[in-house]
């Protein structure tokens, strides 16, 4: 099975935060940040797998600092764990403010992406190159187990919601 260094699929995107994406306080809407995170995670995942995929979930989403109109916004995504047909992608969004270009961490999240590939596809494994990458990889199994537990505990609620929606469609 192939192994790739995390840097081989690292994806970085930089944009200017603009008024069309802002609320009345001139802060970029959280949904726009989530869109940028999802878009960058998808590109990172495709770079890693060679195939497209779908985002199955976003977990541990943290909005840490507002993103103001005019900020330089950098979204960075790396693969931090792999399964048979899925991978975890860690996304960070940084902003650079004003004339100082002070860099501030504004957003973090973990996305789970599932590959859309032939049945014989083998997910490349990953190799950390830095201490923070090693730390992120070391926590993957625990994060994966927590997500599975949360899904199982929420399953009965989802069934009720689905039945309600189906009833509305009758």
Automatic annotation (TrEMBL):
Domain HotDog ACOT-type residues, every copy: 7-119
Q: Which Gene Ontology terms of cellular component type are present?
A: cytosol
Gene Ontology molecular function terms on file: long-chain fatty acyl-CoA hydrolase activity
Gene3D superfamilies associated with the record: Hotdog Thioesterase
Which is a Pfam family this sequence falls into? Answer: 4HBT
**Which InterPro entries would you find in this protein's record?**
Cytosol_ACT (IPR040170), HOTDOG_ACOT (IPR033120), HotDog_dom_sf (IPR029069), Thioestr_dom (IPR006683)
Q: What's this protein's family per the entry?
A: Belongs to the acyl coenzyme A hydrolase family.
Record-given protein name:
HotDog ACOT-type domain-containing protein
According to its UniProt entry, this protein's organism is Aerococcus kribbianus
The top of its lineage is: Bacteria, Bacillati, Bacillota, Bacilli, Lactobacillales
